[in-house]
Design goal:
Elements lengths: L2 E3 L9 H5 L10 E3 L7 H7 L4 H12 L5 H11 L2 H4 L7 E5 L2 E5 L9 H19 L3 E6 L3 H10 L5 E8 L5 H8 L6 E6 L3 H13 L1 H6 L2 E2 L6 H18 L7 E6 L4 H11 L4 E8 L4 H8 L1 E2 L23 H8 L4 H14 L2 E2 L4 H8 L3 E5 L2 H15 L5 H12 L7 E5 L7 H8 L20 E3 L3 H11 L1
Parallel strand pairs: 4-14, 5-6, 5-8, 6-7, 7-15, 9-10, 9-14, 10-13
Antiparallel strand pairs: 1-2, 3-4, 11-12
The structure holds pyridoxal-5'-phosphate (PLP).
Pyridoxal-5'-phosphate binds next to helix 12.
Length: 469
């Protein structure tokens, strides 16, 4: 399998080449030259596979330059009951007939990002060892991504993590999950500013090409292709768990921010998984809902991004969306490059009169909706009352829109993207009591924490990294 850039120009590359990379050299994102197609006999043969075997069968389409035996060892080491709590890894919980939750958040940081990040940590370690290289991951987080990356990379050989977070602005639980790590290859830097200051610092340091090369800087952000591929697996797993035969169709509902999770669903559908609808839910930050209703894509400015009670979806520019647009404009890189120039010059683009729009409306299966704070609170209450299950605010956004788009006899699978324990304040508001905490997380906030505080100063940050790498 060869990879190209969504903007058409970058040379053909292998999976291993793009594994450690951020943007392609032309500013686009890596995408496979063509989608692998799963034949019916192959799909039948996959139905009863355990999670690691299923992951291996899917990953090896995309990572065919990776030695098979090693890939197998890596997925077997990654997807275990010890790390994810159950042998199913992403068990299906039935709420009522044809309405399910796919539990994707039982990893070390209680959010679905662990599914991809844990794999990425093991893939990185393997590739770096083989190439005799080192990597210094520099990132910014407002909560979930940073802790998921740190838990996946802690103690890994050849990797250091420098993670910026806004000082005093994360929940006590999120803070404890990151700052409580004592591994010497993890560096938490609390920046005296907001999340955007953290992100600007990462950009400023990366803009120094010399420093970036000398210090082997890398990223594990949401555009990483391996993360998308890892997420394709649980769409297959969820489909098999909710159906009896491969003649049936299902729909998925996905609370979305950077469009990484639901794009993995799109990939599964393109590979031939019988997915009817991909229901995209946004919160108050509704750029994607607006696009799927109107054909107009208008990313918001940072100042227009609302801080909501489903904070991991507070995103105004959905980075993986470019991959979807590329696929819908017949994989025409020049057209994508032109559209993204419109974004820079005019702040948006409009596909409503383009051929691509017909395709999106008629063939893509995508449909969307927006859920507000009051909807989340109401959904959390109702799900507890009707089914005795406590869900987190992001999952509530997804479920709210899922229920609106249910169809007769088609199972609807809402993806559970985090556990409620991470968002105590909202659960208390909805239910009047604290959410349950999984075993092993009691007293998390009381453990010793390790972090350094720094001003918004790119030179100071560079000096900090240089002294430790
Ligand atoms: C990251 C995240 C999302 C959004 O997922 P995308 O892949 O960015 O669309 C939703 N819910 C939770 C809990 C998350 O951590």
């Amino acid at each position: 399998m060869k990879y190209v850039s969504t903007r058409g120009h970058a040379a053909n590359q292998n999976f291993t080449d793009i594994l450690l990379e951020g943007l392609a050299s032309d500013g686009g994102l890596a995408v496979p030259e063509q989608w692998p197609r799963i034949t019916r006999p192959k799909l039948d043969a996959m139905r009863d596979l355990a999670y690691p075997q299923l992951a291996f069968e899917i990953l090896r389409f995309f990572a065919d330059d990776f030695p098979g035996a090693e890939l197998k060892r890596i997925v077997e080491r990654t997807y275990t009951r010890e790390v994810f709590g159950t042998p199913e890894i992403t068990p299906l919980r039935t709420l009522e007939e044809n309405l399910h939750l796919l539990a994707c958040s039982n990893g070390p940081t209680l959010a679905f990002k662990d599914i991809a990040m844990q794999l990425l940590g093991n893939l990185f370690e393997s590739v770096l060892a083989k190439q005799g290289r080192e990597l210094n991951v520099l990132g910014a987080t407002s909560g979930d991504t940073g802790s998921s990356a740190e838990h996946a990379l802690k103690g890994k050989k050849g990797v250091r993590v420098f993670m910026l977070s806004p000082n005093g602005r994360m929940s006590p639980f999120q803070r404890a999950q990151m700052y409580g790590l004592q591994e010497p290859n993890i560096f938490n830097i609390a920046i005296e500013g907001v999340f955007d200051d953290c992100q600007d610092l990462v950009k400023a340091v990366n803009a120094d090409a010399r420093f970036k090369a000398d210090r082997h800087l890398g990223a594990v952000n949401s555009i990483n292709w391996a993360r998308v591929v890892a997420q394709v697996v649980y769409y297959f797993k969820g489909y098999f768990a909710a159906t009896r035969s491969n003649d049936e169709q299902v729909s998925f509902a996905v609370p979305s921010g950077n469009f990484g999770n639901i794009f993995a669903g799109h990939v599964a559908r393109r590979m031939g998984l019988p997915v009817r609808r991909l229901v995209l839910a946004t919160n108050e930050n509704d750029v994607l809902d607006e696009f799927f209703r109107t054909g107009r894509y208008r990313p918001r400015k940072t100042a227009e991004t609302h801080a909501t009670s489903s904070p991991s979806m507070d995103i105004s520019k959905a980075s993986n969306f470019e991959r979807f647009v590329w696929d819908m404009v017949d994989q025409d890189g020049e057209k994508v490059a032109w559209l993204w120039r419109q974004l820079d010059e005019k702040g948006g683009f409009d596909l409503s009169t383009d051929r691509a729009w017909e395709r999106i409306e008629e063939d893509s299966g995508f449909i969307s909706g927006r859920s507000l704070h009051a909807d989340r609170i109401e959904t959390i209450r109702r799900v507890r009352k009707d089914y005795g299950v406590v869900i987190d605010p992001h999952t509530a956004d997804g479920l709210k829109i899922a229920v609106r788009h249910r169809e007769m006899r088609i199972p609807m699978i809402a993806i559970e993207t985090a556990l409620p324990a991470k968002f105590e304040a909202t659960i208390v508001e909805a239910l009047g009591e604290k959410p349950p905490r999984p075993a092993g997380f009691e007293g998390l906030e009381d453990l010793p924490q390790r972090f350094d505080v720094m001003g918004v100063d790119a030179e100071a940050l560079k000096a900090y990294i240089a002294a430790r790498s």
